[in-house]
Structures are given as structure tokens and as C-alpha cells.
Amino acid sequence: MNKFEQLGLSESLLKAILDLGFENPTEVQEKAIPLLLEKDTDMVALAQTGTGKTAAFGFPVIQKIDANNRNTQALILSPTRELCLQITNEIKNYSKYEKGINVVAVYGGASITDQARDIKRGAQIIVATPGRMQDMINRGLVNISQINFCILDEADEMLNMGFYEDIVNILSTTPDEKNTWLFSATMPAEVARIGKQFMKDPIEITVGAKNSGSATVSHEFYLVNARDRYEALKRLADANPDIFSVVFCRTKRDTQAVAEKLVEDGYSAAALHGDLSQAQRDGVMKSFRGRQIQMLVATDVAARGIDVDNITHVVNYQLPDEIETYNHRSGRTGRAGKLGTSIVIVTKSELRKISSIERIIKQKFEEKTIPSGIEICEIQLLHLANKIKDVEVDHEIDNYLPAINNVLEALSKEELIKKMVSVEFNRFINYYKKTRDISNQASGSERRDDRDGAPRENNNGGATRYFVNIGSRDNFDWMSLKDYLKETLDLGRDDVFKVDVKEGFSFFNTDPEHTDKVMEVLNNVQLEGRRINVEISKNDGGGRRDHNGRSSGGFGGGQRSSAPRREGSFAPRREGSGGGFRGDRNSAPREGGFGGRSSAPREGGFGGRSSAPRGEGSSDRAPRRSESFGDSSRPRRPRKD
Ligand code: AMP
């Protein structure tokens, strides 16, 4: 009897498991499945992404529902469209030998009528994102009043994204007698609140230590100057020719900019963020899964549902605002027992965050130095030599050999090898000869205002900091409060900044020229019958709070706590905004090249599709910091996106 059989699973599930090639249950499966099969119970399971959670709730739910009854019996809520589709797929795979089970995915960005029709045909299991589910309930398109099971997957992330109210509303329309299974990587207060409100004596299981990272992921950081962030990213890619990675940025804007720059510089990269249309996102994910994209540049929210095997590296191009988010990011690699590396590109002023993360993940970071140009050339050269050694010869080439021999016959073996690899090597050496060492340059020139996205002008005065008596209790987050203030005060796009929303109050900054207006106008405004009170804050603008990172838990505080949590909710949609996924470039065949990475240079070379330097001596085509992503495109003040 194998270990899955011991869990009490049905024949049809065991057959599907065999097809899937799962040999042994994962820890969460081993702990959750027997309990959920045996008892009608609520459960709270603390488990990271990539631990096999979907099967841990999927197997029991499939086994417990009545396939002969076409009513909806189970609702699975998940934070993102991608995750929703992924869970639906997995459930379909698991239940393929169960007759009569229908699973329907319900998510925004696709036809609600089609989804309603699919449900009407009889869907025992609905997998939904909270927003669309709420919408369907409001329109009377779905009936979940008879369900027996409600599963909240990645509950912390759903709440992080601002779905608290939707979840509460949805749960309120379900029967009290149902069982609720809550899966979450972490247990912040809001998740605990949901648990308390909607669950009865849940069994709690924990997989691994709470908040700890996966043992299969090693963590590295590279210290650079803020202006060298992008160059560092390129070098890391060049130093890992077979990199298959997710590169995380904090904002949609940076995500787009970094991806565009990478594509421009010849790497196979694409952006994934909430401003892309559904079709664009699907296209990007398809290419990534198919490995036509080596570097997927993504926001945290958009990458949330990504379950792609064999990701070699997670790159934190910018650190996230919340410590838990680091865990989610690094969990994209080192999945299913494979090894992975989580890289952080960090500036000196952010170094203390590394220690905070270490404390939480209970793992040490290794400090590494960005490889020098020469080291990269060496790596690439050996990579190329190995590639030549391993390449499978297509005998079509025999037809051309006489002509090729004619050209090359005068060369000795040594000369031939030298020349062959030089075709590619020259490009790298020519490029890197001209570049400087960028590693560890933050020392001695620590610039506190190097922080990406942080307003430079208000570290030490300059700006006026205000205290205002409205906050998250009034349904504001930093983006909506910023919008509200701009509108109420009739100020420009960047005139209100460093908005920091707490529960009952908030802080924000303006330049001093607006101080009189802010005090006069805002102190005479009412919000839902309550007078707004604004005062000039003694707090010096939150600049220092950012640096010491001690102000509000996490590792942010101050400005950091105002980071985008609800991507997509306020940000403008830029359908077809271009430059998301550069399908034209990225759809090129993948192999070849000195690094075999990028799609750009078709001219010359050994497949010539590789990365940084394009074309012989093409230093002009290498990224020029002053014009490129560097400082110029970095937002100087917090932005909506
Ligand atoms: P999840 O945490 O549910 O997103 O699962 C992460 C990945 O592990 C998915 O690709 C699953 O198909 C895979 N997986 C789940 N359970 C097992 C298992 N027992 N053995 C091997 N792989 C598994």
C-alpha cells in the first residue's frame, strides 16, 4: 500500500494520482487529507505556496461531494484569476476518473454570462475570485445557499488585496452548517478574525515553521548603488545563462519599465501586471510556461497564482513592502523538492531589511558580489563550450559540409575552436571591457534618498507633514486617500505624497506652498457627516521611519506601509498599452546564442540571440544608464501604481 492509499483516498483519486506521477503525499496532504475525509470539520491550515495545498483540500472535496447531485456543493475562493484557473485545472485533473463532477472557474475579465451558463448546467465545485463571486451573487446568477464546503485558499493574500468585505459578504450567504477550510501562508489579524467569525472549533495544522521559508530555497543578496540596480539585474542574468526566473518589482510602472528595458537590451523578458488585458496576461503566461520567456517581470499581485515548475531564480529587483510578501515571492522557486535561489538586489539603505527577513524566514542570506565583466565572459564562454559539446547534430548539415570545409580547411583545430567561440565571446568581452565594477559600491556613498519610489525632497523638512483624522476605518487605503485629497484640495497628480494610512488616522505630505490651502479647505470638509480635522504633524515626514523600518511592524512602516495592496482596484486599465509582452520579439526560437537567452540580435554570431551586448563591439546598444531605466524613470514620489 503506498502512502496515498493509507490516507483513505478513493480508487478513482488514486488512479488520477498515479497519472499525475505524485509518489508520496506532501506534508500538508499527509496531515490534512485523513482529517478532512474522516470528520466533518472546519480547518485552518498554515502552509506556504508550493506545498501541495491544492490537493490537500482538492482530494477530500472531490471525494466528499455527491457527483449525482448537480447543485453547487463546494466553493473555493482564491485571490487571483491565475490561481483560480490553476486550481480549477488541478481539480479537473484530480477528478478525471470521477464521473459527473463539474468544476467551473469564476473570475473577472471573462464573460459573466458564460460563467453563469456553465454554473447553471450543474457545477458541484465553483472556484472563484471574491470580486466576481460577489458580483454573481448580487446579480442572482449563482446559488451557494446549499454548499457543504467553503475553502479559502491563500486567505492572507485575499485579505491583503482588500477582499475582506467581499469574503465576509460571500460567507454570509452560505449555510452555517457547511465546513470551512482556510489555507493561508501566514496568520495576520484579519485572517484570524475571519476564522473566528466564520469557523467552529477549527482543527489547526501547520506545515513547517510558521512564516519560515522553504528549505529548498537559498537566499542571496547583492549590494549595489540604487542607480546600478538595472545593470546588476542584467549581469545576474548574464552570469546565469540558463536562468528561468520571476523578477519582482514593486509597482506596475517599474515592472513595465524593467521588462521593456530588458527586451530592448535583447533579453527574453515580458511584463506581467494588472494593467494588461486578460488576453495579454494569458499570452505572457503561456510563453513563460513554454519557456519562451526567461525573465518574467511581475508585480506581486499578478504573480500570485503562478505555478510554474523549475523556476531557477526569484529576483527581488526591489524588496517588497511586507515581509510576508518576500516569502510568497521566494516560494515561486524551490518547488516540489527542486532547489532554487532567491536573489535580492539591495542598496545600503535597505540592508537592515535583510536582517528582518532573516529573522522571519529563519534562514541566513549569503552576501554575494555582482560578477565582474570578466567573470561573466568566462561563464558565458564555458557555457558556450558545453553547448557545443552537447549539441545534437542535424544531419541536414552534411550537405553543406564540403563548402564549409572549403572555407575552414586552412585552420588548425586550435585556431578553429578559438575562432568559433570568439564569434560570441567577442561580443561579451567588447561590452564588458568598457563597463566598470558595480558591486558593493554603496559603501562610502550611502545615499539615503536612493530609495526607489521614495520622495527625495522630504527626508529632512522641505515638505509639510499632516495628520488627518480619517483612515482605513473610513475605507481608505493610501491610493484612495491620495485621490480623495487631490480632488478635495484641487491639487495636481504629485502634490500629495507619502500618504500613510492607519486605522483611525493618516499622515500625508505636501510641499509648503500648499499648506495654507490644506489647512483651510480640509478643516472645513465633512466626510459622511463627520468633520475632517487636519493638523500639521510633529512627525518629520516619515523619512526616518522608512529608514529604521520600525514604525509599523513588517519591515516597512512609514512610506512603505502605503504601498499598493490593491493592484487593479484603483489603477487605470491600460488595455493594449503596448510593451507588456513583446510577443513579436519573444516568440522567436529559444535556443542558440551565447547564453541562448534573448531574441534580439539576429545578425551574425552563433545563433546570436543572446543578451546584453548585441552585435560586435556594440557598446552603443548596451543600456546607457543616463537614458535608460536608471534614475530617470524612477518615481520620485509615491504613485498610484
Ligand atoms: P500547490 O501548493 O497546490 O500549488 O502545489 C505545488 C505543485 O506541487 C503543483 O505543481 C502540484 O501539482 C505539485 N504537487 C502537489 N502534490 C504533490 C505530490 N504529492 N507530489 C509531487 N508533486 C505534488
TrEMBL record:
Record keyword Amino-acid biosynthesis present: no
GO MF term list: ATP binding; hydrolase activity; RNA helicase activity; RNA strand annealing activity
GO BP, sorted A to Z: response to cold
Transmembrane domains' residue ranges: none
Residue span, DEAD-box RNA helicase Q domain: 2-30
Span of the annotated motif Q motif: 2-30
Comp. bias regions, Basic and acidic residues: 445-455, 535-549, 564-588, 617-628
Domain of life: Bacteria
Residue span(s) of domain Helicase ATP-binding: 34-205
Residue ranges of every copy of the Helicase C-terminal domain listed in the record: 225-378
EC id: 3.6.4.13
Any GO CC annotation of this UniProt entry: cytosol
Keyword terms of this UniProt record: ATP-binding, Helicase, Hydrolase, Nucleotide-binding
Stretches the record annotates as Disordered: 440-464, 535-641
Family: Belongs to the DEAD box helicase family.
Annotated protein name in UniProt: RNA helicase
Native organism: Flavobacterium frigoris (strain PS1)
